[in-house]
Amino acid sequence: MRLALPPLNALRAFESAARLGSFKAAASELCVTHGAISQHVRLLEDWLRAPLFERHNRRVVLTAAARAYLAEIGPALDRVASATERYGYDTGAVLRVNAPATFALRWLVPRLARFQEHHPTVKVRLETSNAPLESLRDPHDVIIRGGPDTFYGYEAHPFLSEHRLPVCSPALLDRLPLRAPDDLRRHTLLHSLSLPRLWDDWLAKAGAADLRPDAVLVLDHFYLTLQAAVDGLGVAMGPTALMEDDLARGRLVAPFPGPLLPARSYCAYLPETREKTELAAVFRSWLEWEGNMRAADGEKPVRHE
User: Fold this and answer.
1) pTM for the whole structure
2) pLDDT score, position 206
3) In sequence order, which residues have a C-beta less than 8 Å from that of residue 36 and are 6 or more positions away?
4) Beta strands in 220-302 (DSSP E)
5) pLDDT tier at 58 (50, 70, 90 boundaries)?
6) What phi and psi, each to the nearest 5 degrees, are found at residue 77?
7) How many CB atoms neighbour CB 80 within 10 A?
């Protein structure tokens, strides 16, 4: 008789939270909310009838029994993933790419059709995660992160420069004009939990470090912050590379030409030991071509009002 298995989504959430030591990091890795990770862990605890974490204010610590449980299920999940990759599809034509969720939604996905047009036989399998490169469990052919940084066993290839500046919807700007940074006092400033100091850094650079806005709205993912700006909820600190389409089509405007807040470039990290290095190199070259197109265009899609 086959033994009963716990809920697999709950098991995956527990394994990620236990391995990374954080519900927030697990949420980023699995592209779900912090609350979803917490619910899955509680579901697994109910199924096991035993606690898995000791909860101390804002941090969690594995119980002794949970550490032993993790040591068993971690390798088991690795074997499932390995078997799936080996037998579930033809790996020879599949390119596994891992990228941050906001970058994937706002830059990579809208351009993938151009890659597929020139390489119709390549199956791109895109996974999103904000987890540090060295903590990723599954193998990937291309990993996109900020940089350039040095990681053992990886080659870093910068392909897209980045800056940040305030953006908002045209309708919001019509209601509450922004002629100088001091006008932001009348606005709601949109913050992202993952990048909490963006506004402080920009306001200091703009000579308005003491500014107090009318209101503040904090969202847990950067892509939600940008969508809130599109929907007119406030002013966001937006990444120029990821807002090109919204700015070009008038869904967002940049009320100030500067100052531009510097940011890390996007880089393609290629494992030196992966078998599909030629295919990964093709994808890396395409990323560089797309990034060079923007650079050659002078980043002119950034519209100012």
Assistant:
1) 0.66
2) 94
3) 13, 27
4) 235-239, 261-262, 265-271
5) low
6) -65, -35
7) 11
Name residue 93's amino acid.
Answer: A
Sign of CA dihedral 29, 31, 35, 41: negative
Helix (H) or strand (E) holding 80: helix 64-87
Query: Which residues in the chain are classed under CATH 3.40.190.10?
Result: 91-160+265-296, 163-262
Give the residue from 300, 285, 298 showing the smallest Cα distance to 159.
Answer: 285
Statement: 163-262 belongs to CATH 3.40.50.12780: no
Q: How far is CA 213 from CA 83, 168, 203, 253, in A?
A: 53, 15, 11, 19
H or E element at residue 206: none
**HSE (CB half, 13 Å, CA atoms) of 6?**
20
The residues with which 125 forms a beta bridge, in sequence order, are: 96
Q: Which residues contact 17 (CB under 8 A, 6 or more apart)?
A: 23, 25, 26, 37, 41, 53, 60
Predicted confidence (pLDDT) at residue 304 exceeds the cutoff of 60: no
Burial class (CB in 10 A: 0-12, 13-18, 19+), 94: middle
Element (H, E) at 274: none
Phi first, then psi, for residue 107 (nearest 5°) are -130, -50
8 Å CB contact between 154 and 277: no
What are the CB-based long-range contacts (under 8 Å, 24+) for 35-42?
37/13, 40/7, 40/9, 40/10, 40/12, 40/13, 40/14, 41/10, 41/13, 41/14, 41/17
**What is the CATH topology of the domain spanning 91-160+265-296?**
D-Maltodextrin-Binding Protein; domain 2 (3.40.190)
More confident residue, 220 or 191: 191
Query: 8-87 has which fold?
Result: Arc Repressor Mutant, subunit A (1.10.10)
- pLDDT tens digits, one per residue of 274-298: 555 788 889 999 999 998 865 555 4
- Please give the distance of CA 124 from its chain centroid, rounded to a whole number: 18
